[in-house]
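Late entry, manganese (II) ion complex.
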Amino acid sequence: MLIILKAIEDIAYKIEKAIQHEDLGYSEGQNSSGESQLKLDVRSDAIIEHRFKNVSVIKDIISEEKDEIMHLHDKGKYTVCYDPLDGSSLVDVNLSVGSIFGIYKGSLDGEGLVAAAYVVYGPRVELVWVQKGQKPKLYYAKNQKEFSFVGEITLNEKGNINAPGGTQKHWEPHHKALIDGLFEEGYRLRYSGGMVPDLHQILLKKGGLFSYPGTLDKPKGKLRQLFEVLPFALIYTMAGGEAVDSKGVSLLQLKPDHIHDTSPCFLGSRYEIQAMREAYGV
Ligand code: AHG
Ligand code: MN
Ligand code: MN
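Prediction complete; structure with ligand written out below:
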């Protein structure tokens, strides 16, 4: 599986270069979620597809920017689901963005998820890698050739960061009570609109809550299960936190029907997920 990590390191360098130097404009296309595509979304997807074509253990790939699953190697064992450039609409205002990868073996669901990774393109390029049963590992891009290991990531029982997603006017009353309750306790608002830096910050600050709930306008939430929600659910769970849906059920129980299915999601340290369960009565 580490051959996939090596490929992700190479991909990170190439996408970082593309972000630094390429056109930030919109392409003509839309992705399967009906979102307009930046040329960088398409470019990042092509970089990943090209690099994964040299990794024979990868059987298929699924991308936020592709309508259907793409077959790569008959003898491959893994399906890699990825969001090539998450938060891409933030690139033209020079905020941090990321790439997210879920590595699946057997079933395309929480059970089949065996590893996950993300890359943050920020002031520094950083990468987090996790294999099921192990602690998440943090690396940073030392130079154009290698990532160096920084340390393992663990979450405390409680934090003080609140990252509330979704359109506030469409929040359900019990969700608003959860978010306001945390602010009442003195939590700090830290929300950039990019889930990768927003979730990375909570991990490195060792606690807090990231939520993207079901809302009146989007009852199933916005974030895609296979290549946004599930990879982070594995990382948060392996770091000693929790990742649940709006029924308080672990997101690692998710079984998407379609490759672009979404789910409401709550990821954080244990205290904040307990607060969610109390507010939602689950
Ligand atoms: P993407 O750019 O890949 O479509 O993902 C953006 C997502 C995620 O990064 C973030 O948490 C969420 O969109 C923000 O949505 P809102 O703007 O509705 O808060
Ligand atoms: Mn995304
Ligand atoms: Mn994206």
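Residues 35, 64, 83, 86-89, 165, 193-195, 212, 222 surround AHG (ligand 1) (CB under 6 Å). Will revisit in the morning.
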